[in-house]
Amino acid sequence: MRTLLEKFYKTDISVEKFHYRKVFLEEPIYDLDVSNKSKTILSAKSYQINGITQSGKTKLLKNYLLSLKKNSYLYIDCSDVRIEIDKLNKTLANFCVENKIETLVLDNYTDAIEFVTVSQLLIASQNHFPIDSLESIWLYPLDYEEFLAHEHKYDSTALNHFFELGGFASMHKIYSDERTLYIQKTLQYALDEIEFDILCFCAKMMSQKISPFTIYERLKNSRKISKDKLYKSYENLVEKKYIHLLEKFNYPKATKKIYLCDISLRNALTIEKHFGRLFENMIYLELLKSNQICFYADLIDFYLPHAEEVILCMPFADERALFKKIEQIEAFLFSYQIKKITAITMNREGQVSHPLSKVELIPFDIWALGD
Fold first, then answer.
1. Is the pLDDT of residue 40 over 80?
2. Please, what is the end-to-end C-alpha distance for the chain in angstroms?
3. Cα 104 from Cα 76, distance rounded (Å)
4. Taking the model in full, what pTM does it have?
5. Alpha helices in the chain (DSSP H)
6. Residue 104: CB atoms within 10 Å
7. Domain ranges in the chain?
8. pLDDT tier at 34 (50, 70, 90 boundaries)?
9. Which among 19, 53, 194, 198 could bridge 149 via Cys, Cβ 3.0 to 4.6 Å?
10. In terms of CATH architecture, what is 147-279?
11. Distance in angstroms (rounded) separating the CA atoms of residues 79 and 65
12. CA–CA separation, 10 vs 365, rounded Å?
């Protein structure tokens, strides 16, 4: 195992062009020794980076390591089949001491690997581990603003390109005729068989109210599966954030709406088409990544209590359609003193007069890039 660690230690880290994300790792504070023209880490945050497959965890870690001295860190991909965990646990601590490792990176971490004492520990995994000593970072697929950094130019085609590719940065390098199979194979590698089947069903039910029991009732007709096993796999998908659940306002026990981790999964996992639901899922992900607390309500896509705002997903609506929609939800608007109604569209802008709320139609790209 020492030979393998030596190989890891001597291997140069490389990162293809890195596009900065909205989350980042803080640089260490160094103690400078002027006489020896050297520096050592005085203090540094240790992190646990979580995210679904292809969300950019490894690239974020490697880009950070390139800012450090080459001989000060050790990067280990724990999924390497050559690693024998028992031997690694017996060898790693001494290796780090002997080589004065300040930053240790355990990518694709599994909790069978024991931590060692270093100035900075960085781990990355799809699974979140309850470790108080590590600051947690969730890395999601690209939001629209991050996506634009990968575009050669920002023009009217950018939004359509986003619908086509979604938030996986790697999709920019995959030929169009290979993208569907690429996503399928990537997910099949990252998930077990039942988790993958559940995700495929959720892709069909994107942006709809669906319960785990309903999923069980549907899937048991096509495969042998226990309810307990399905529920556990469903919970795993939620915990790893492959699917997201939205609660109904003031009804926590009501059936929750299901959203996918990225809009690209819809076309990759099902042939069913429904642009309105895809559009709604895309808006939900923007709210999620901006840490907005929101709920759904009857006839209302998203309610943001702290902002006293209602968001309606109306890709092809005009002022007349919006006015009719407002009439349907007027009781809710008055009951909760809604101050702002935002109808998000594909490209329509406009305003509607209302005695209580500010009402406007706003295109998705303008809304997503706004403050």
1. no
2. 50
3. 8
4. 0.93
5. 2-10, 57-65, 85-98, 144-148, 158-165, 179-190, 193-204, 212-219, 227-239, 264-269, 275-289, 319-328, 330-335, 364-369
6. 22
7. 2-138, 147-279, 292-371
8. low
9. 19
10. Orthogonal Bundle (1.10)
11. 19
12. 45
